[in-house]
């Protein structure tokens, strides 16, 4: 077995350990090369969220490009197939879905790299011991999610991380303590099983205690899709359905979960991002983290999808109008 194969297997072993630890990363694999290129077919590398790289997929020209793309893959949760080289090298026979990334090196080499996200399984923390809480945990386990069912006394900020989803179902028993701990930990989702009126009272109390408004605005009350009066089993289904919906939309990965609060009229209020126009396709998008922001010429542009952003990155002059503002 050659050195490249040995190194590739070592990277896979390290990837397996990182996955066991629940750490998010991207795995990049060279699937084709055109010499001269320092990257070899079968070369692999792990790219962490921070941009730290373990392994080898190419030299000083290819590596920073792959790292940038890998960090976006982690954020979006979607794989990419990259062609690193000049568009002249590949001609017009490039299948849809493959991104051509220009390389400034003069070696005339080229690489095809597959970059895939490796993300932890969803982590759900349910605080409370009600029948609904037990049902919700059972349903989440059926989806293969990692779940924890905790009493308020056992719940702490150490029980969650920024990707966790927390549902407080204490049914009036130390709700305030559980919500304050949950928002302080900063997970991807915090939901409270309560009526809007009860939620308004609880959040108002925490605001008076000095809990920052930006933290309280992230609490979704009531947790789950609005199904009207339902049984505790149906409440559990409604909460799980909301979590699945938000994850599928990419809101939890991108940090773009809408901020919500309650009003005296029991009506939910949602903070919406400013709407601007995608410079590539002309679609109106919200200027938020989920809209693929990209800075060019000290101006931040937003896009409807990763494809529009990639087209802009490759040829910004084709889309930037003089005097354009973000």
- What ranges have pLDDT less than 50 throughout 5 or more consecutive residues? 261-272, 322-326
Mass-distribution shape? elongated
Overall structural domain count = 3
What Rg is obtained from the alpha carbons, in whole angstroms? 23 Å
- Annotated CATH homologous superfamily of the largest domain: NAD(P)-binding Rossmann-like Domain
Summarize this, please?
The chain has 10 helices and 17 strands.
Which key features would you list for this structure?
Rossmann fold, 10 helices, disordered C terminus, elongated, alpha/beta, 22% strand, 6-stranded mixed beta sheet, 326 residues, 17 strands, 5-stranded parallel beta sheet
Explain what the structure shows:
There is one protein chain. This protein has 326 residues and is an alpha/beta fold. It folds into 3 domains: 3-118, no CATH class; 123-270, 3-Layer(aba) Sandwich (Rossmann fold), CATH 3.40.50.720; 275-318, no CATH class. It has helices spanning 3-21, 62-76, 87-90, 131-142, 175-185, 196-208, 213-216, 232-248, 251-254, 306-314; strands at residues 25-34, 44-48, 53-55, 80-84, 98-101, 110-118, 123-127, 146-150, 165-168, 189-192, 219-220, 260-261, 269-270, 275-277, 284-286, 294-296, 299-301. The strands form 5 sheets. It has a 6-stranded mixed β-sheet with strand order 3-2-1-6-4-5, sandwiched between helices. It has a 5-stranded parallel β-sheet with strand order 8-7-9-10-11, with helices on both faces. Helix 4 (131-142) packs across helix 8. It is elongated and about 65 Å long. The model is unreliable at 261-272 and 322-326 (pLDDT under 50).
């Amino acid at each position: 077995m050659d050195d490249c194969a040995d190194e590739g297997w070592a990277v896979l072993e390290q990837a397996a350990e990182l996955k066991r630890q629940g750490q998010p990363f991207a795995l990049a694999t060279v699937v084709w090369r055109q010499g001269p290129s320092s990257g070899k077919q079968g070369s692999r590398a792990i790219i962490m969220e921070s941009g730290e790289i373990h392994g080898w997929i190419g030299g000083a020209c290819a590596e920073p490009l792959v790292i940038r793309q890998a960090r976006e893959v982690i954020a979006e949760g979607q794989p990419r197939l990259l062609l690193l080289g000049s568009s002249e090298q590949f001609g017009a026979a490039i299948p849809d879905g493959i991104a051509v990334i220009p390389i400034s090196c003069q070696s005339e080499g080229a690489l095809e790299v597959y970059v895939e996200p490796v993300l932890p399984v969803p982590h759900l923390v349910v605080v409370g011991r009600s029948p609904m809480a037990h049902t919700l945990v059972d349903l989440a386990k059926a989806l293969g999610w990692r779940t924890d069912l905790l009493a308020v006394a056992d719940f702490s900020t150490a029980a969650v991380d920024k990707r966790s989803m927390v549902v407080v179902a204490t049914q009036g028993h130390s709700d305030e303590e559980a919500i304050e701990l949950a928002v302080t930990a900063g997970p991807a989702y915090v939901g409270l099983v309560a009526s809007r009126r009860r939620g308004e009272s609880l959040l108002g109390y925490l605001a008076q205690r000095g809990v920052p408004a930006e933290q309280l605005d992230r609490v979704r009350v009531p947790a789950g899709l609005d199904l009207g009066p339902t049984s505790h089993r149906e409440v559990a289904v409604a909460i799980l359905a909301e979590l699945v919906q938000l994850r599928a939309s990419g809101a939890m990965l991108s940090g773009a979960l809408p901020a919500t609060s309650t009003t005296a009229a029991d009506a939910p209020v949602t903070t919406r991002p400013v709407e601007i126009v995608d410079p590539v396709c002309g679609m109106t998008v919200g200027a938020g983290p989920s809209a693929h922001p990209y800075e060019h010429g000290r101006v931040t542009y937003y896009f409807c999808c990763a494809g529009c952003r990639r087209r802009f990155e490759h040829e910004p002059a084709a889309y930037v109008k003089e005097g354009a503002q973000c």
